[in-house]
What we know:
Elements: H1 2-13, H2 18-24, E1 30-34, E2 40-43, E3 56-61, E4 64-69, E5 76-81, E6 92-100, E7 103-111, H3 116-120, E8 127-131, E9 134-140, E10 146-153, E11 156-162, H4 170-181
Antiparallel strand pairs: 1-2, 3-4, 5-6, 6-7, 7-11, 8-9, 9-10, 10-11
Amino acid sequence: MRRTAAVLLVCGLMPGLAACDALAGQAPPADTGTDAGSRPVRSASPPPKPDTQRQTIALACNSTKVPVPASPAGLARAGSFARLESLRRRTKVRGLTWQQDDERLYVGVVCGVYTAEQFVTLVARSKLSAYWGKPALQWTTRNGLRNFMWLERPGTAVYIGATPGLTAEIRPLASEIGRRVDK
């Protein structure tokens, strides 16, 4: 009984102790800056979380918009493209290019591919796989460009290509785009 009384007395006299807040079931106070006397000011509410959402650019096929990070992996924007040489058929392509030194990253949408059968025959000598249950193609061009494309929705395929130095960016970028499209 004496220990409990001593703990309650200490907690009553010194609010803001982590142990007291844990006993009371409250969140510990957070620093919210300094007052005019340059002393830290404590608040019981947690500080606001920083905005971790990256800005996006929407590439579209008809009504389907594909959000693409405005600056993937901190690269500098280097232009756009409207054609993929690897495609067997002429289709509408909209894409953006980023670069870092001599390395390039390409992200785009390929419009007009409505079925998995059409999609599979789109690129010669490509490897068929699945990306989150959707048909996907992987291929490497003669000049070393690594390519990945998946059929996001009927009529819209998402394309990502990277030179050898940026190949590691393909998977995280595909994951981020896939998460944003499915929202």
